[in-house]
Amino acid sequence: MTAGPDTNTSTIRRWQLALLLAYPLLAVAGALTHRQIFPLAALLLLLTALLLPQLRRGRAGPWLLWLGALLALPLLALAGWAGLLLELVPLLVNALLAWGFGRTLWTPEPLVARFILAIEGAGRLAQPGVARYARQLTVFWTLLLAAQALLLAVLLLCAAHDGLLARLGITAPLAVPDRWAAAWQHAGGYLLLGAVFLLEYVYRRWRLRHLSHPALHTMLLQLALHWPRLLRGSGAAAS
């Protein structure tokens, strides 16, 4: 018996999760040891996780991109740029997330409203106060992620020895110790977002205490299952 589409999708997502969990471990190892092999492996794992669905389908374009990266990354490592590329990843992630949240504010269905539709259905969104809170929360995450991206840009530029300005021989207006910059880029920034997510969940249960709420693990599972539909908007109702 062959596995169905749902089984294949579930398997791919499990592999993606494993690769994404390994990524910060390698990034931190690279920051602590200054060995180029760790950022090189972290970048390759991240690219593999992003391209994995297309690679599994055997598409030529993604495979050419992956093989090109496999050849290019060692050359960048030899030139000493793998670590800098790795430090660029958190900045890009936060900037793209801020854009993803912010662009939906101009639509009738802000991104947090799409989360609610995917997890709990249209009935929940229609309950008093929920739609307004969803829009407010979308604004909050847009601002937080944009601020984080700005901070990461400053760290990328101004790290005392490893920053982009230092590499170019330019004196940074604000010299940030390399260890502090690396710690925030590869651990602190992600921990902040995780902590804010948990605190918001607690606050939401208090603010909308007249409503029942799914358990945290159920909410995370539903987000993992339905995230592709969140990007499309309309029709993301829970099945």
Summarize the structure.
76% of the residues lie in helices and 0% in strands. The protein has helices at 5-33, 37-56, 60-78, 82-103, 111-120, 122-125, 130-158, 164-167, 178-207, 216-230. The chain starts with a helix and ends in a 9-residue tail after the last helix.
Topology:
Layout: H1 5-33, H2 37-56, H3 60-78, H4 82-103, H5 111-120, H6 122-125, H7 130-158, H8 164-167, H9 178-207, H10 216-230
Helix pairs in contact: 1-2, 1-9, 2-3, 2-4, 4-7, 5-7, 5-10, 7-9
- Helix segment tally: 10
Q: What are the low-pLDDT stretches, counting only 5+ consecutive residues below 50? A: 235-239
Based on CA inertia axes, which overall geometry fits? globular
Kindly state the number of beta strands.
Answer: 0
The major β-sheet equals: none
How many separate domains make up the residues?
2
Give the topology string: H per helix, E per strand: HHHHHHHHHH
* Overall mean pLDDT: 80
Rounded to the nearest angstrom, the distance between the terminal CA atoms is 26 Å
Helix share of residues? over 70%
* Residue fraction in strands: under 5%
Overall SS class: mainly alpha
Give me the Rg, rounded. Answer: 20 Å
Descriptive terms for the model:
mainly alpha; about 240 residues; 2 domains; globular
Report on the structure:
It is a single chain. With 239 residues, this protein is an all-alpha fold. The protein folds into 2 domains: 1-80; 81-239, no CATH class. Helices cover 76% and strands 0% of the residues. The chain contains 10 helices and no strands. The chain has helices at 5-33, 37-56, 60-78, 82-103, 111-120, 122-125, 130-158, 164-167, 178-207, 216-230. Helix 2 (37-56) crosses helix 4 (82-103), helix 4 (82-103) packs antiparallel against helix 7 (130-158) and helix 5 (111-120) packs across helix 10 (216-230). The radius of gyration is 20 Å and the shape is globular.
